[in-house]
Write a structure and sequence with these properties.
This protein is α/β, with parallel strands linked by helices. About 30% of the residues lie in helices and about 25% in strands.
Length: about 375
């Protein structure tokens, strides 16, 4: 599948912001003895996996976390030699390739152990693996009884180094959710029982971005920040300390005046309440700017908020600029970012779209031309 980066829009990735956010997270985790494994899956949440990884590796981190072998291939072919952790298991037939890419592999099913062990035997290599335990996410991971079966028989996996255990919170972004303590307590109990069986994992990790801020009792000797690295965390208080790494802009391509009562865009979901000046922007849902933001979201033009009116189209949206003076064709339009002291964040847009900032960043970052700055 081919994705076409739009030439009519621009995503800027501020790599200095990523290092700033990483240092902020490290200031919380390092006193607890916890090193960071930043997550760069899904093209670094739309920010560019190679460029972001290179920036992260300027700092003292354990390694990075990915989701797909193709991501690892990009990094290794670009000369990245750092630790790379495959978060969520292997598809059938991928064990040999994973070993050749020199990955630390997260094991999420019993099936993977045998395939990986045999691939290691064939290549005369021992493979570092971490066992993932499902403590309540209901997604990837070994059930506790499966985990203990593996721990009991761990010596039979002669070409595996089982050196880590990890889990994942389902609700850590909900600070007061009882699910968080329930999962953490179960994880601690599993670790206690494993130690009683003589298994002492070198690496233990559970905390994600939200848990680093909200549940520091879940900081073991590794932590896996994701969205906070990119400065788009949901908490407004914490976001004041983080720096958004991604900004998104375009330019006005046409300006027109329409009378009161005129219908705008497909379906005429917006009728002008006054004679209005409108700006046409060559950005739409094909650029990852979701159609559900129609008649809800603002943009920034010359430091002023202007409302999107009418339905967002595939390649165009329309903005009411009646209250902004001296706007001309070619004027910059900010969708995410700052203009003359005003700001629109990915978190704000996500709330208006009834989604999360992760979705918007992944889409917008991948579907528009990117420029990397410091």
């Amino acid at each position: 599948m081919t994705f076409f980066e739009s030439e009519n829009s621009l995503v800027k990735i501020n790599l200095s912001a990523i290092s700033h956010n990483l240092k902020l997270l490290s200031s919380i985790t390092e006193p607890k003895g916890s090193k960071l494994m930043p997550i760069v899956k899904s093209d670094a949440y739309g920010h560019g996996i190679l460029e972001v990884t290179k920036e992260l590796l300027k700092n003292d981190i354990w390694g990075i976390g990915i989701y797909e072998l193709e991501e690892a291939t990009i990094l290794r072919q670009s000369g990245i030699k750092a630790k790379v952790f495959l978060l969520s298991g292997l598809l059938d037939g991928n064990a040999k390739r994973a070993i050749e890419l020199d990955l630390t592999i997260g094991i999420v099913t019993k099936r993977e152990l045998h395939e990986l062990n045999e691939a290691g035997r064939a290549l005369s290599k021992k493979v570092d693996v971490h066992l993932k335990v499902d403590t309540g996410m209901g997604r990837f991971g070994l059930l506790p009884n499966e985990f203990f079966e593996i721990v009991k028989s761990r010596d039979k996996w002669t070409h595996l180094n089982i050196i880590g255990v990890y889990s994942h919170f389902s609700s850590s972004d909900q600070k007061d959710s009882p699910q968080n303590i329930k999962q953490l307590n179960l994880f601690k109990e599993i670790l206690k029982n494993a130690k009683e069986m003589g298994f002492y994992p070198e690496f233990i990790h559970m905390a994600n971005s939200a848990a680093i801020f909200n549940m520091q009792e879940s900081l073991f000797n590794l932590a896996r920040p994701g969205i906070a690295i990119y400065g788009a965390y949901e908490s407004s208080d914490i976001n004041k300390r983080l720096k958004p790494a991604l900004s998104f802009s375009s330019k006005i391509v046409d300006i027109k005046e329409l009378p009161k009562g005129a219908g705008i865009s497909y379906g005429h979901t917006f009728l002008l309440k006054r004679k209005s000046k409108l700006a046409l922007i060559p950005v739409g849902y094909d650029n990852g700017f979701l159609r559900c933001l129609s008649n809800k979201a603002d943009v920034l033009i010359k430091g002023k908020r202007c409302r999107i009116v009418g339905n967002i189209c595939m390649k165009t949206l329309i903005v009411d600029i009646t209250d902004v003076n001296n706007v001309e064709i070619g004027e910059e339009v900010i969708f995410i970012g700052q203009s003359l002291g005003k700001e629109i964040t990915a978190v704000e847009l996500a709330k208006k779209a009834n989604t999360i900032s992760y979705e918007l960043l992944c889409l917008i970052g991948k579907l528009n031309k990117r420029r990397f700055i410091h």
